[in-house]
From TrEMBL:
It is found in: Cell membrane. Residues 1-32 are annotated as: Disordered. The chain crosses the membrane at residues 66-95, 115-137, 144-168, 174-193, 227-248, 260-285, 322-345. Belongs to the UPF0718 family. It comes from Streptomyces capitiformicae. The keyword Membrane applies. It is a multi-pass membrane protein. It holds the Pfam family ArsP_1. This is Permease. Its main location: membrane. InterPro entries: DUF318, UPF0718.
Protein backbone atom coordinates (compact mmCIF):
# COMPACT_ATOMS: atom_id res chain seq x y z
CA UNK A 1 0.00 0.00 0.00
CA UNK A 2 2.81 2.41 0.85
CA UNK A 3 4.44 1.72 -2.50
CA UNK A 4 1.24 2.41 -4.40
CA UNK A 5 0.65 5.63 -2.44
CA UNK A 6 4.17 6.81 -3.29
CA UNK A 7 3.67 5.94 -6.97
CA UNK A 8 0.50 8.02 -7.29
CA UNK A 9 2.22 11.39 -6.61
CA UNK A 10 5.03 10.43 -9.00
CA UNK A 11 2.52 9.68 -11.75
CA UNK A 12 0.76 12.99 -11.08
CA UNK A 13 4.08 14.87 -11.27
CA UNK A 14 5.01 13.15 -14.55
CA UNK A 15 1.58 13.97 -16.06
CA UNK A 16 1.94 17.62 -15.02
CA UNK A 17 5.38 17.77 -16.61
CA UNK A 18 4.10 16.21 -19.83
CA UNK A 19 1.19 18.65 -20.01
CA UNK A 20 3.50 21.63 -19.44
CA UNK A 21 5.85 20.35 -22.14
CA UNK A 22 2.95 19.98 -24.58
CA UNK A 23 1.73 23.48 -23.77
CA UNK A 24 5.22 24.88 -24.37
CA UNK A 25 5.41 23.11 -27.75
CA UNK A 26 2.01 24.49 -28.72
CA UNK A 27 3.11 27.94 -27.70
CA UNK A 28 6.33 27.86 -29.74
CA UNK A 29 4.72 28.48 -33.14
CA UNK A 30 2.62 31.28 -31.67
CA UNK A 31 5.70 32.91 -30.16
CA UNK A 32 7.55 32.65 -33.47
CA UNK A 33 4.52 34.02 -35.25
CA UNK A 34 4.32 36.95 -32.89
CA UNK A 35 8.04 37.66 -33.24
CA UNK A 36 7.81 38.25 -37.01
CA UNK A 37 5.68 41.43 -36.81
CA UNK A 38 7.80 42.53 -33.88
CA UNK A 39 10.97 42.11 -35.91
CA UNK A 40 9.44 44.01 -38.83
CA UNK A 41 8.39 46.82 -36.50
CA UNK A 42 11.89 47.03 -35.05
CA UNK A 43 13.39 47.22 -38.54
CA UNK A 44 10.99 50.00 -39.52
CA UNK A 45 11.77 51.95 -36.36
CA UNK A 46 15.50 51.51 -37.00
CA UNK A 47 15.08 52.72 -40.59
CA UNK A 48 13.19 55.83 -39.44
CA UNK A 49 15.76 56.55 -36.74
CA UNK A 50 18.64 56.17 -39.19
CA UNK A 51 17.01 57.99 -42.11
CA UNK A 52 19.60 60.75 -41.98
CA UNK A 53 22.62 58.48 -42.52
CA UNK A 54 20.61 56.40 -45.00
CA UNK A 55 19.88 59.49 -47.09
CA UNK A 56 23.55 60.39 -47.15
CA UNK A 57 24.49 56.85 -48.20
CA UNK A 58 21.84 56.74 -50.94
CA UNK A 59 22.89 60.16 -52.20
CA UNK A 60 26.53 59.13 -52.58
CA UNK A 61 27.72 58.89 -56.21
CA UNK A 62 28.88 55.29 -55.74
CA UNK A 63 25.46 54.23 -54.46
CA UNK A 64 23.70 56.05 -57.28
CA UNK A 65 25.90 54.31 -59.84
CA UNK A 66 25.31 50.93 -58.16
CA UNK A 67 21.53 51.40 -58.14
CA UNK A 68 21.52 52.51 -61.79
CA UNK A 69 23.36 49.39 -62.97
CA UNK A 70 21.28 47.10 -60.73
CA UNK A 71 17.92 48.45 -61.91
CA UNK A 72 19.01 48.48 -65.57
CA UNK A 73 20.06 44.82 -65.49
CA UNK A 74 16.89 43.67 -63.69
CA UNK A 75 14.48 45.68 -65.86
CA UNK A 76 16.09 44.50 -69.10
CA UNK A 77 16.25 40.85 -68.09
CA UNK A 78 12.91 40.42 -66.31
CA UNK A 79 10.62 40.11 -69.40
CA UNK A 80 12.85 37.41 -70.92
CA UNK A 81 12.99 35.61 -67.57
CA UNK A 82 9.20 35.55 -67.21
CA UNK A 83 8.69 34.37 -70.80
CA UNK A 84 11.30 31.65 -70.38
CA UNK A 85 9.72 30.43 -67.14
CA UNK A 86 6.28 30.21 -68.78
CA UNK A 87 7.60 28.28 -71.78
CA UNK A 88 9.66 25.91 -69.66
CA UNK A 89 6.57 25.16 -67.54
CA UNK A 90 4.57 24.40 -70.70
CA UNK A 91 7.27 21.99 -71.89
CA UNK A 92 7.68 20.30 -68.52
CA UNK A 93 3.94 19.74 -68.04
CA UNK A 94 2.27 19.51 -71.46
CA UNK A 95 4.95 17.98 -73.73
CA UNK A 96 5.17 14.24 -73.03
CA UNK A 97 8.61 12.73 -72.72
CA UNK A 98 7.57 10.02 -75.18
CA UNK A 99 7.58 12.71 -77.88
CA UNK A 100 11.37 12.94 -77.66
CA UNK A 101 11.78 9.18 -77.74
CA UNK A 102 9.77 8.99 -80.98
CA UNK A 103 11.44 12.01 -82.58
CA UNK A 104 15.09 11.13 -81.92
CA UNK A 105 17.07 8.77 -84.18
CA UNK A 106 17.69 5.28 -82.85
CA UNK A 107 21.47 5.44 -83.34
CA UNK A 108 23.08 7.23 -80.34
CA UNK A 109 25.69 8.93 -82.55
CA UNK A 110 22.90 10.64 -84.50
CA UNK A 111 20.58 11.09 -81.52
CA UNK A 112 23.11 13.33 -79.74
CA UNK A 113 23.18 16.20 -82.30
CA UNK A 114 19.43 15.81 -82.89
CA UNK A 115 18.78 16.21 -79.16
CA UNK A 116 21.17 19.15 -79.06
CA UNK A 117 19.29 20.89 -81.87
CA UNK A 118 15.99 20.14 -80.12
CA UNK A 119 16.90 22.92 -77.70
CA UNK A 120 16.20 25.40 -80.51
CA UNK A 121 12.57 24.40 -80.94
CA UNK A 122 11.85 23.33 -77.35
CA UNK A 123 13.27 26.06 -75.15
CA UNK A 124 13.59 25.84 -71.41
CA UNK A 125 15.75 27.36 -68.69
CA UNK A 126 18.36 25.27 -66.90
CA UNK A 127 16.00 24.76 -63.95
CA UNK A 128 13.62 22.93 -66.30
CA UNK A 129 16.21 21.14 -68.46
CA UNK A 130 17.45 18.90 -65.63
CA UNK A 131 14.05 17.32 -64.81
CA UNK A 132 13.23 17.09 -68.54
CA UNK A 133 16.51 15.24 -69.15
CA UNK A 134 15.68 12.95 -66.24
CA UNK A 135 12.27 12.24 -67.81
CA UNK A 136 13.95 11.41 -71.14
CA UNK A 137 16.26 8.86 -69.52
CA UNK A 138 13.34 7.38 -67.60
CA UNK A 139 11.35 6.97 -70.85
CA UNK A 140 14.16 5.07 -72.59
CA UNK A 141 16.07 7.83 -74.42
CA UNK A 142 19.81 7.12 -74.53
CA UNK A 143 21.57 9.06 -71.72
CA UNK A 144 24.02 10.63 -74.17
CA UNK A 145 21.17 12.29 -76.09
CA UNK A 146 19.41 13.36 -72.88
CA UNK A 147 22.61 15.00 -71.63
CA UNK A 148 23.09 16.83 -74.93
CA UNK A 149 19.57 18.24 -74.57
CA UNK A 150 20.26 19.12 -70.92
CA UNK A 151 23.22 21.29 -71.94
CA UNK A 152 21.88 22.81 -75.15
CA UNK A 153 18.27 23.70 -74.28
CA UNK A 154 19.08 26.49 -71.79
CA UNK A 155 21.78 27.96 -74.04
CA UNK A 156 20.54 28.02 -77.65
CA UNK A 157 16.77 28.44 -77.36
CA UNK A 158 15.15 31.44 -79.12
CA UNK A 159 14.50 33.38 -75.93
CA UNK A 160 18.14 33.21 -74.83
CA UNK A 161 19.44 34.10 -78.29
CA UNK A 162 16.99 37.02 -78.56
CA UNK A 163 18.04 38.26 -75.13
CA UNK A 164 21.68 38.03 -76.23
CA UNK A 165 20.94 40.07 -79.35
CA UNK A 166 19.17 42.73 -77.25
CA UNK A 167 22.00 42.82 -74.70
CA UNK A 168 24.70 43.13 -77.40
CA UNK A 169 23.06 45.36 -80.06
CA UNK A 170 26.40 46.42 -81.52
CA UNK A 171 27.81 42.89 -81.68
CA UNK A 172 25.43 40.57 -83.56
CA UNK A 173 28.25 38.07 -83.97
CA UNK A 174 27.90 37.38 -80.24
CA UNK A 175 24.62 35.56 -80.91
CA UNK A 176 26.22 33.28 -83.50
CA UNK A 177 29.24 32.64 -81.29
CA UNK A 178 27.03 31.68 -78.34
CA UNK A 179 24.93 29.36 -80.48
CA UNK A 180 27.93 27.61 -82.09
CA UNK A 181 29.98 27.25 -78.89
CA UNK A 182 27.06 26.00 -76.79
CA UNK A 183 25.93 23.46 -79.39
CA UNK A 184 29.48 22.17 -79.86
CA UNK A 185 29.94 21.67 -76.11
CA UNK A 186 26.54 19.94 -75.76
CA UNK A 187 27.22 17.51 -78.62
CA UNK A 188 30.80 16.86 -77.52
CA UNK A 189 29.69 16.03 -73.97
CA UNK A 190 26.99 13.72 -75.31
CA UNK A 191 29.46 11.86 -77.50
CA UNK A 192 31.99 11.69 -74.65
CA UNK A 193 29.37 10.15 -72.38
CA UNK A 194 28.39 7.69 -75.09
CA UNK A 195 32.03 6.68 -75.49
CA UNK A 196 33.35 6.79 -71.91
CA UNK A 197 30.31 6.94 -69.62
CA UNK A 198 29.35 4.06 -67.35
CA UNK A 199 25.83 3.08 -66.39
CA UNK A 200 26.89 2.72 -62.75
CA UNK A 201 27.80 6.43 -62.63
CA UNK A 202 24.24 7.58 -63.36
CA UNK A 203 21.51 6.90 -60.83
CA UNK A 204 18.09 6.21 -62.42
CA UNK A 205 16.04 9.42 -62.11
CA UNK A 206 13.07 9.38 -59.77
CA UNK A 207 9.52 10.11 -60.84
CA UNK A 208 8.77 13.82 -61.37
CA UNK A 209 6.82 15.71 -58.74
CA UNK A 210 4.15 16.69 -61.30
CA UNK A 211 2.68 13.20 -61.50
CA UNK A 212 -0.60 12.89 -59.65
CA UNK A 213 -1.46 16.56 -60.14
CA UNK A 214 -3.77 18.21 -62.63
CA UNK A 215 -2.18 19.95 -65.60
CA UNK A 216 -3.14 23.38 -64.29
CA UNK A 217 -1.77 22.74 -60.80
CA UNK A 218 1.45 21.30 -62.20
CA UNK A 219 1.86 24.25 -64.58
CA UNK A 220 1.46 26.92 -61.89
CA UNK A 221 3.58 24.92 -59.48
CA UNK A 222 6.38 24.85 -62.04
CA UNK A 223 5.96 28.59 -62.71
CA UNK A 224 6.11 29.46 -59.00
CA UNK A 225 9.16 27.25 -58.46
CA UNK A 226 11.11 28.66 -61.40
CA UNK A 227 10.18 32.30 -60.71
CA UNK A 228 11.30 32.03 -57.09
CA UNK A 229 14.58 30.34 -57.96
CA UNK A 230 15.47 32.11 -61.20
CA UNK A 231 14.25 35.49 -59.94
CA UNK A 232 16.36 35.20 -56.81
CA UNK A 233 19.47 34.34 -58.78
CA UNK A 234 18.76 37.22 -61.18
CA UNK A 235 18.73 39.67 -58.27
CA UNK A 236 21.98 38.21 -56.92
CA UNK A 237 23.57 38.42 -60.37
CA UNK A 238 22.42 42.00 -60.87
CA UNK A 239 23.81 42.95 -57.45
CA UNK A 240 27.14 41.31 -58.30
CA UNK A 241 27.31 43.08 -61.67
CA UNK A 242 26.49 46.42 -60.07
CA UNK A 243 29.14 45.85 -57.39
CA UNK A 244 31.77 44.98 -59.99
CA UNK A 245 30.83 48.06 -61.98
CA UNK A 246 30.53 50.62 -59.17
CA UNK A 247 32.48 49.41 -56.14
CA UNK A 248 35.41 47.27 -57.29
CA UNK A 249 38.32 49.53 -58.33
CA UNK A 250 38.61 49.81 -62.08
CA UNK A 251 42.34 49.04 -61.88
CA UNK A 252 41.56 45.56 -60.50
CA UNK A 253 39.11 44.75 -63.28
CA UNK A 254 41.44 46.18 -65.92
CA UNK A 255 44.30 44.06 -64.61
CA UNK A 256 42.19 40.91 -64.93
CA UNK A 257 40.70 41.95 -68.26
CA UNK A 258 44.09 42.76 -69.82
CA UNK A 259 45.27 39.16 -69.40
CA UNK A 260 43.43 37.05 -71.99
CA UNK A 261 43.62 33.76 -70.07
CA UNK A 262 42.88 35.28 -66.66
CA UNK A 263 39.86 37.15 -68.07
CA UNK A 264 38.31 33.98 -69.51
CA UNK A 265 38.92 31.96 -66.35
CA UNK A 266 37.65 34.76 -64.10
CA UNK A 267 34.35 35.16 -65.93
CA UNK A 268 33.90 31.39 -66.22
CA UNK A 269 34.27 31.03 -62.45
CA UNK A 270 31.99 34.04 -61.94
CA UNK A 271 29.30 32.34 -64.05
CA UNK A 272 29.48 29.26 -61.82
CA UNK A 273 29.23 31.29 -58.62
CA UNK A 274 26.45 33.66 -59.71
CA UNK A 275 24.17 30.90 -61.08
CA UNK A 276 22.12 33.36 -63.17
CA UNK A 277 19.22 32.08 -65.27
CA UNK A 278 20.18 31.82 -68.95
CA UNK A 279 17.37 34.16 -70.01
CA UNK A 280 19.03 36.97 -68.03
CA UNK A 281 22.77 36.29 -68.05
CA UNK A 282 23.44 38.18 -71.31
CA UNK A 283 22.51 41.48 -69.67
CA UNK A 284 24.93 40.85 -66.82
CA UNK A 285 27.67 39.93 -69.30
CA UNK A 286 26.97 43.03 -71.38
CA UNK A 287 27.51 45.23 -68.31
CA UNK A 288 31.06 43.86 -67.82
CA UNK A 289 32.48 46.16 -70.49
CA UNK A 290 36.07 45.96 -69.17
CA UNK A 291 36.31 42.38 -70.45
CA UNK A 292 36.73 41.18 -74.02
CA UNK A 293 33.91 39.62 -76.01
CA UNK A 294 35.65 36.23 -75.86
CA UNK A 295 35.82 36.24 -72.06
CA UNK A 296 32.17 37.30 -71.90
CA UNK A 297 31.34 34.50 -74.32
CA UNK A 298 32.88 32.07 -71.82
CA UNK A 299 30.57 33.55 -69.17
CA UNK A 300 27.55 32.92 -71.42
CA UNK A 301 28.55 29.38 -72.41
CA UNK A 302 29.62 28.12 -68.98
CA UNK A 303 26.71 29.56 -66.95
CA UNK A 304 23.79 27.65 -68.52
CA UNK A 305 25.75 24.38 -68.43
CA UNK A 306 27.32 24.26 -65.00
CA UNK A 307 26.81 26.46 -61.96
CA UNK A 308 26.13 25.91 -58.28
CA UNK A 309 22.39 25.34 -58.57
CA UNK A 310 22.80 23.08 -61.62
CA UNK A 311 25.38 20.97 -59.82
CA UNK A 312 22.95 20.51 -56.92
CA UNK A 313 20.09 19.64 -59.29
CA UNK A 314 22.23 17.18 -61.27
CA UNK A 315 23.30 15.53 -58.03
CA UNK A 316 19.70 15.21 -56.89
CA UNK A 317 18.52 13.85 -60.26
CA UNK A 318 21.35 11.59 -61.43
CA UNK A 319 23.44 11.06 -58.30
CA UNK A 320 26.68 12.38 -56.82
CA UNK A 321 28.91 10.01 -58.83
CA UNK A 322 27.49 11.45 -62.06
CA UNK A 323 27.74 15.11 -61.05
CA UNK A 324 31.33 14.82 -59.77
CA UNK A 325 32.44 13.46 -63.15
CA UNK A 326 30.14 15.36 -65.51
CA UNK A 327 30.41 18.89 -64.08
CA UNK A 328 34.24 19.36 -64.14
CA UNK A 329 34.57 17.99 -67.69
CA UNK A 330 31.71 20.23 -68.87
CA UNK A 331 33.35 23.27 -67.23
CA UNK A 332 36.75 22.61 -68.82
CA UNK A 333 35.33 21.84 -72.25
CA UNK A 334 33.08 24.92 -72.19
CA UNK A 335 36.07 27.17 -71.47
CA UNK A 336 38.16 25.57 -74.23
CA UNK A 337 35.42 25.75 -76.87
CA UNK A 338 34.53 29.33 -75.89
CA UNK A 339 38.12 30.43 -76.33
CA UNK A 340 38.39 28.75 -79.74
CA UNK A 341 35.04 29.99 -81.05
CA UNK A 342 35.67 33.46 -79.68
CA UNK A 343 39.03 33.62 -81.42
CA UNK A 344 37.44 32.70 -84.75
CA UNK A 345 34.13 34.60 -84.66
CA UNK A 346 34.68 37.58 -82.32
Amino acid sequence: MAISQEAEPQEAVSKDAESKEAESKDAEPHSRHLNSPLLLTMLLVLAVAAQGPLRRVLAAPVTQSWMTVFVAVVVQALPFLVLGVLLSAVIAVFVPASFFARALPKRPALAVPAAGMAGVVLPGCECASVPVAGALVRRGVTPAAALAFLLSAPAINPIVLTATAVAFPGNPEMVLARFVASLLVACAMGWLWQRLGRGAWMRPPERPSYEGQSKGAAFWGSVRHDVMHAGGFLVVGAMAAATLKAVVPASWLNAAADNWIVAILALAVLAVLLSICSEADAFVAASLTQFSLTSRLAFLVVGPMIDLKLFAMQTATFGRAFALRFAPVTFALAILVSALVGTVLL
